[in-house]
């Protein structure tokens, strides 16, 4: 009896153990681990979703308005959102709607696009050169590329652009010009990425073109044409030069185009974010204006004169390399000059009884040698008035006194690239012509050969052409670069920068 009881107890214990094992196995089999996805915003968990793909698809479906606005097929989670897969026994998760509503409240969603960085080096008279960076967001790189083409065509004739791009330019036979290169001065980089919809994102080529041209998407100033207006008069009244006016109004092809009353034109000041560089090779026949030689006859009284020989203009075949930045001449290099016909100087005999230090207002000498190029006239430029003319011949070429007079002031010892030297004037000479208040100024010189108080005569070499002070393009500081070489030649009534007023230098010739 006792043995049977022992066997029964053993059987019951074994049965219990087996039941516990089987029951535990069943419970465990009902809790297999599953994959869920935690959603984090800026590193902080905000919930859990069942499927990453379903959650992202839910966002994309809810944001139809954004897709229509930016003309894209998909909208993505905001910046700072991370979705990480987890393996867990906890089968609880949040609805897609709940997490979406949290994100709508806290953040803006994103879209895939192209992020463009434009790195630009800028300098001024007050500050050293510094780099600035502009970021432009576009839904597609094609939008930016098309806008760039529009900007380039604003600064170069469309036929020239097309023939250059197609490789169909006609070779120069005798005279003419060729476009050698077109490029952007700034460093432009592209990166595909996610862009938040709270940022400015360009989808339209026209809007981006406007932004690249004016530095703003705001409506630009306009003007209603009145009777008697010309392109030149409207440009001057709105601090534009005629080239800038034509760029802002591409429907006009020439400064001589006719306007009609009540016509609406753009007069906004262009401020391009990018610099379109066009380099050209040009060959032209240019008139070489005859010089005037003055002889003084001590037997004749002062004020009496006669022409001993009439002058005759010459003709030169001149080859140059031009660099234009946004439609303005930035640099010129003289390649060659071949004399076709020599100029014959005019000889004027004048009476004298002493060496005059008083100018003869009827005869003014040109302040440089020939051939020369006028790179900027007496006109508005970049929103301010350029109250002189810029003349290019070449670095180190002679600069002459325009008339008899006394050296009133000299500035020298400037280092190339120091844009602030002498207030941006660089090395300079000012001559008082001792009659009717006339003064002339000569700026950005490489060297000065006269001193204050020295009497100079008409046509006397007083300096050498250079690129000191504030010039464009600016040469590297302390370098021997010829960048920006030109003579800034101004005519004043009264001492320059001390109460005097300017005159158009061309009025003297």
Descriptive labels:
ten-stranded antiparallel β-sheet; 509 residues; four-stranded mixed β-sheet; elongated
Question: If you had to describe this structure to a student in words, what would you say it looks like?
Answer:
With 509 residues, the protein is an alpha+beta fold. It is 21% helix and 36% strand. A hairpin with a 2-residue loop joins strand 18 and strand 19 (384-386). The longest helix has 28 residues, at 2-29. The radius of gyration is 38 Å and the shape is elongated. The protein starts with a helix and ends in a 6-residue tail after the last strand. The model is unreliable at 1-5 and 23-29 (pLDDT under 50).
Short description:
The protein has 509 residues and is of the alpha+beta class.
Number of strands: 28
Measured between the Cα atoms of the first and last residue, the distance is 146 Å
> Roughly how much helix do the residues carry, as a percent range?
10-25%
> Would you tell me the structural class of the helices and strands?
alpha+beta
Overall mean confidence score, pLDDT: 91
Count every helix, treating DSSP H or I runs of 4 or more residues as helices.
9
Tell me what portion of residues adopts beta-strand conformation.
35-45%
Give unreliable regions as ranges. 1-5, 23-29
Largest sheet composition: 10 strands, antiparallel
* Overall radius of gyration: 38 Å
Domains (count): 5
Overall 3D geometry? elongated
